[in-house]
Amino acid sequence: MPDVISDTSPIQYLYQVELLDLLFRLYAEITIPEAVENELAEGRDHGINLPGVAEMSRFKVRTAAPEQTIRFPTSLGKGEGEVLALAFVSPDSLLLLDDALAQQHARQLGITFTGTLGVLLKAKQSGLLVEVRSILDKLDTKGFRLDKKTRAAVLKLAKEAGSD
C-alpha cells in the first residue's frame, strides 16, 4: 500500500463532521508533515474545532528536510508545500489535498492525490458510509467550498443523484 500523506484540510473537515476515523479505516497509516501538525495546533489555539493530542497521536509525523523542499513558481501554504516535498521523495504516495493549486502541482509532478470528497466516495464504495449527501450538507456548514457542479458529480458517483 502506498504512503498516504495528508494536508490539513482533509483532517480538519473529516474531524469536524465526526468522520476522522474513516482515514484510519481506509488507510493503514496516515503521515503528516510537521507543518500540518503545527497548522492544526495553531488552529486549536485560536479556538477552531480541530483534532487534539489524542487524535493526533494516530498520525505519523515526518519532517520534510530542507533539501526536499520544492520551489514552486506560485505560493502554497507551508502544509501543502511540505506534503508535496514528502511525496516527491516517496513518489508512489497518495496525497490527501483539497487545495486546487496544490493538486495542480501534484498532477504536474505525477503524484497521485485525492481529497476529502474522494475519501468520502471511497468510504461509501467500501461500505463504511451509507450515503454522502448529508455529509456534504454538514461540510457546507463548516465552510467547505463545493460548487453545485462538483456536488452533483460527487452525488452521481455516489449513486445518490437526484433532486438536490
Keywords summarizing the entry:
164 residues, alpha/beta
Structure characterization notes:
Helix 3 runs antiparallel to helix 5 and helix 5 packs parallel to helix 6. Helix content is 49%, strand content 10%. It is an alpha/beta fold and 164 residues long. The chain has helices at residues 8-16, 21-26, 34-45, 53-56, 78-88, 100-109, 116-125, 133-141, 148-157, and strands at 4-6, 30-33, 60-62, 94-96, 112-114. The model has no long low-confidence stretch (mean pLDDT 89).
Strand order of the largest sheet: 3-2-1-4-5
- By DSSP (H or I, 4+ residues per run), the number of helices equals 9
The number of E-state strands comes to 5
Major pleated sheet? 5 strands, parallel
Helix proportion? 40-55%
Sheet/helix structural class: alpha/beta
Proportion of β residues? 5-15%
Instruction: Give the uncertain stretches in residue-range form.
Output: none
Element-by-element helix/strand order:
EHHEHHEHEHEHHH
Distance between the termini: 36 Å
- Which whole number gives the mean pLDDT? 89
Tell me, briefly, the overall form. Answer: globular
Radius of gyration over all CA atoms, rounded? 16 Å
Structural topology:
Elements: E1 4-6, H1 8-16, H2 21-26, E2 30-33, H3 34-45, H4 53-56, E3 60-62, H5 78-88, E4 94-96, H6 100-109, E5 112-114, H7 116-125, H8 133-141, H9 148-157
Parallel strand pairs: 1-2, 1-4, 2-3, 4-5
Write a brief caption for the model.
The chain has 164 residues and is α/β, with parallel strands linked by helices. The chain has nine helices and five strands.
